[in-house]
Amino acid sequence: MKQKQEFYAESELRDAATRLEQERIRRCLDGHRPSQQALFEAYSSKMLGLCYRYTGGLQKAEELMQQGFVEAFSKIQLYRFQGHFQDWLSATMLSNIVRWAKADLAFEEYPEPVLAESYFEDIETDSGLHSSDIVEMIVSLPAAYRVVLNLYSIEGKHHEEIASLLRLEEHTIRNYYTRARMLMARLIAAKGRLHEIALETVTILK
Amino acid sequence: MKNQPSMDERDQFDELLEAVGKSVEAKPEKGWEEESENKGQIENQDSEKHD
After folding, report:
1. What ipTM, to 2 d.p.?
2. Are A53 and B23 an interchain contact pair (Cβ–Cβ within 8 Å)?
3. Cα–Cα distance measured from residue A45 to residue A62, given in angstroms and rounded to the nearest whole number
4. Using the beta-carbon criterion (under 8 Å), do B20 and A197 form an inter-chain contact?
């Protein structure tokens, strides 16, 4: 009985939070600054984390995040209240990140495929790893590798879609992914065992 | 060498990276008010120059 009451109380709280957020989004349609600020405060840490995974540096990440919020608020009428606002905001951030990657990063065409034998290297070793170790490894990759690995492994986009986004050949994207994965495998092998990682929110401290 | 998934098949490695990657958070240095006020000032300066 108590569990049922707690469940309904939590459910009501979630509904109230959703209604409050939707009201804030509606107010943002009129450029209401306090509502913009409230949404910024609610999502900026997550959005900065997203940008940081791509840039590998907090200064550039914050610049991209701020641009992303400006863009999101300027076209917030396109959010149709279908799906979670965070997903829509993340997609807007990602468009901004892809524009930056296309303009600022040097992607080379790789005509030769990487050898298949080295594609799936064994990445298990003997000691433990933390989520923060993995994040540090991702951000330490060369920029173009990091962008492709983020888009494929973390965002879940297909090679073909990434090629289209970055205006590159699909085989080039596959090679970037393979090379990024090989580098990650080496870094992980040097530090720990993949299946022992305890997942936690990784907070990047300055 | 273990069984190799195809090039397009997501495996444990990708799933792990997804879980870890989506958990990353960082506290911004500037707030929204501060940033948008700066933008407003820059825009005002720009419009003054045009005038």
Report:
1. 0.80
2. no
3. 10
4. yes
Each residue of B7-34: pLDDT tens digit?
Answer: 567 888 888 899 989 999 999 998 887 6
Q: How close A204 comes to chain B (CA, Å)?
A: 5
pLDDT of residue B8: 62
- At A204, phi and psi to the nearest 5? -85, 120
Element (H, E) at A155: none
Q: Do B20 and A202 touch, CB atoms closer than 8 A?
A: yes
Q: Do A45 and B25 touch (CB under 8 A)?
A: yes
Question: How distant is the alpha carbon of residue A70 from its chain centre?
Answer: 18
Smallest CA-to-CA distance from B32 within A171, A37, A100, A158 is with: A37
Q: What tens digit of pLDDT does each residue of A158-199 get?
A: 999 999 999 999 999 999 999 999 888 888 877 766 555 666
What's the CA gap between B19 and A82, in Å, rounded?
24
Name the band, by pLDDT with cuts 50, 70 and 90, for residue A125. very low
Tokens linked to A18: 């959703």
User: Cα A50 vs. chain centroid, distance in angstroms?
Assistant: 4
Q: Identify which of B4, B17, B31 has the shortest CB distance to residue A153.
A: B17
